[in-house]
Design brief:
Blueprint: E1 9-14, E2 19-24, H1 27-33, H2 36-47, E3 61-64, E4 79-84, E5 91-96, H3 100-105, E6 109-115, E7 122-127, E8 130-135, H4 144-155, E9 160-163, H5 166-169, E10 177-181, E11 184-188, H6 193-199, E12 202-207, H7 218-235, H8 237-242, H9 247-253, H10 275-282, E13 283-287, E14 297-301, E15 311-313, H11 317-323, H12 332-345, H13 349-365, H14 370-373, H15 382-394, H16 399-402, H17 406-413, H18 415-418, E16 423-424, E17 427-428, H19 438-446, H20 474-491, H21 495-499, H22 509-519, H23 525-545, H24 557-561, H25 576-590, H26 600-605
Parallel strand pairs: 1-6, 7-12
Antiparallel strand pairs: 1-2, 3-4, 3-6, 4-5, 7-8, 9-10, 9-12, 10-11, 13-14, 14-15, 16-17
Helix pairs in contact: 2-20, 2-23, 7-22, 11-13, 12-15, 19-20, 19-25, 20-23, 20-25
């Protein structure tokens, strides 16, 4: 296929039967769903039977690239991975960086869809000719880095690997994927998609190929990069110097950083785990995704104390929050260790830390006892926390309970305990305040993934001129942001280079130019907005088919009933009546029913007739 911006092919492999199928898609399909997120949503909607358990062989795991993957656009090396999440039984997609996406691009397959369940552990090797299933019994149980290195030694270091750890193998619902390239790590995929691979007995996916990506107008792509080069440099300079730990200071300063299971959102001591301290005491070197000028990655080294000798990637801002402030812990070295443990075992740091935060509050309030937990753990006790992480990955003792995620534990403990659950749609909440940022209040409630900061985005809300306390106009803002992220994740482009890099935090002419230059189309901005809206509506249709409606578009009890007790955002929260007003407005603007169901008229207008619920 000679389509510009695409390989034009989708590879489906059934790991149960070992059969594979290659389908070509046309420009109309590409123009409707764009790539990445959009392709994954369409494949999942069409192929995953409603109501199945996420560990059913018929669930899919889709790895998808987009029309600018492997181009000159900075931050283009991201993969979208999607499927039905074992945390909540809903559509879930996630993106990860590194080098895998570019290498997948060289296979000629824009999407790789994995279905079925293998009778024994395997890894998949995908190249231009299709897929080969390779026995992986010897890798089962191995940590992620060793797995990647063993496979690369076998398959060649020009290949790229994404693998699961012991957590994914044991179907831990908060398991995550790991991707290493040149021994640098780019972690990927919340929502337990690694557990779905584990249920399929797939230890790893390997890509390699020599098919060069073709773009319609390479000169126009270069011109766009040149025009935005200065803005990218300026907008990402802090990330280049400090990486994401830089966010600790600014977010704590507005009073929106969760402490003690989000009871508090400010501390004068937060900078003990902030960017400056990490840079000064632990920085070893900068790392980067393939060909990205930002280099927001860092390798840290602990030189003294109980974690001396630990050398690992820096804990991202989200890991710092989940294993630091949320657990009443401000020991910076312990967070590097927590990152290493989670990465090696294949666990999502946000869900893991926030689930433990829920446990600590339940212990404090007497909903759980130390005997049940089996480890003498409490606020600030990081060694005991690390023990719980290891137990979770192996489902041993109380780890078997933690492995199910915090929402299932809350259901087990009952009504009173549920008030302290920090999750939306069973996905643990990240480090951007649902109370201090009104756009996040409505954004989390309505986003496909619930407790994810990648549907509606926090970034714009931290700007001094953004009215973050006022619910007015936030429904419209959330829609704009969600349409943008759906497109961004279909391109598939990094948030840092897109939002901070001079292209913009919302859909605009830069993205129109980018897509047209890659594909040779004549898209305009209205059509691009419609693509974003189409993808959001299709994800919603998937979730509606699984029973989602207005009742599920809600926020944690604490967010709705307890104002922030102190700090710069003191007094802010999102009471039920305010959330209801924002929901009404949101559904109306989206063209969904009052119960949050996309109407037949709206689905028809978006070319999604097939998704009308009959």
């Amino acid at each position: 296929s000679s389509m510009q911006g695409y390989g034009g092919k989708i590879l489906t492999v059934d790991v149960g039967s070992g059969t594979q199928q290659v389908e070509e898609f046309d420009a109309a399909f590409a123009r409707a769903y764009l790539g990445g997120n959009g392709f994954a949503a369409k494949l999942c909607y069409d192929r995953i039977p409603p109501g199945i358990d996420p560990f059913d062989p018929r669930n899919l795991v889709v790895f998808a690239t987009g029309p600018i993957t492997d181009s000159v656009i900075p931050g283009n090396i991201r993969n979208c991975v999607a499927g039905k999440s074992p945390l909540n039984g809903l559509f879930f997609d996630s993106t990860f960086g590194g080098r895998f996406a570019g290498t997948q691009r060289h296979t000629g397959f824009d999407a790789i869809a994995i279905t079925g369940t293998s009778p024994e552990p395997v890894y998949l090797v995908v190249d231009e000719g299709g897929v080969r299933l390779t026995p992986a019994k010897d890798l089962w149980g191995k940590p992620t880095l060793q797995t990647a290195q063993t496979i690369l030694d076998r398959e060649g270091w020009d290949s790229d690997v994404v693998s699961i750890g012991p957590a994914g193998e044991r179907r831990v619902r908060i398991a995550a994927l790991a991707h290493y390239w040149k021994n640098r790590e780019a972690f990927g995929a919340r929502g337990g998609l690694a557990a779905v691979l584990g249920s399929k007995q797939v230890k790893a996916v390997v890509v390699r190929g020599n098919r060069k990506a073709q773009f319609a107008d390479p000169e126009a792509l270069k011109a766009l990069v040149n025009e935005t080069r200065e803005a990218l440099k300026k907008g990402t300079s802090n990330l280049h110097v400090f990486g994401t730990p830089n966010l600790v200071k600014g977010i704590n300063a507005i009073g929106g950083l969760g402490f003690f299971n989000n009871r508090f959102e400010y501390s004068p001591d937060a900078e003990q785990v902030g960017g400056e301290r990490y840079k000064a005491e632990f920085h070893k070197k900068d790392t980067t995704c393939n060909k990205c000028p930002v280099a927001c990655g860092k390798t840290f080294e602990v030189k003294e104390g109980e974690y001396a000798g630990t050398v690992w990637k820096m804990p991202e801002y989200e890991t710092i929050y989940a294993f630091g402030p949320m657990l009443g812990n401000l020991d910076p070295a312990s967070l590097i260790k927590a990152e290493e443990l989670c990465d090696q075992l294949g666990l999502d740091t946000i869900s893991m830390g926030v689930t433990i935060a829920f446990v600590l509050e339940c212990l404090e309030r007497g909903f759980l006892t130390e005997r049940e937990v089996g480890v003498p753990v409490g606020w600030g006790k990081h060694q005991a926390v690390h023990r719980l992480v290891e137990m979770t990955a192996r489902r041993e003792g109380f780890g078997d309970v933690l492995a199910e995620g915090s929402a299932r534990l809350a259901d087990r403990l009952g009504h009173e305990a549920r008030k302290f659950l920090h999750a939306v749609k069973s996905l643990e909440m990240p480090a951007h305040s649902a109370r201090a940022l009104k756009g996040m209040s409505i954004g989390y409630a309505t986003g496909t993934r619930g407790g994810s900061h990648h549907d509606a985005r926090p970034t714009a809300q931290y700007a001094p001129d953004f009215d973050r306390r006022n619910p007015e106009g936030k429904a419209a803002w959330a829609i704009r942001s969600q349409n943008f992220t759906a497109v961004d994740d279909s391109l598939v482009l990094c948030r840092f280079t897109s939002e901070r890099g001079g292209y913009g935090m919302y859909l605009n002419e830069n993205y129109v130019r980018m897509i047209n230059a890659a594909t040779g189309w004549d898209l305009d901005l209205a059509e691009l907005e419609r693509i974003g809206e189409r993808i959001c509506a299709l994800e919603r249709a998937f979730n509606v088919r699984e029973g989602v409606s207005r009742k599920d578009d809600t926020l944690p009890w604490r967010v709705q009933h307890e104002p922030i007790p102190d700090g710069p955002s003191k007094g802010t929260f999102c009471p039920p009546e305010e959330l209801d007003r924002m929901l009404e407005e949101y559904y109306e603007l989206r063209g969904w029913s009052k119960d949050g169901i996309p109407t037949p008229e709206k689905l028809r207008a978006l070319g999604l007739e097939f998704a009308i619920q009959r």
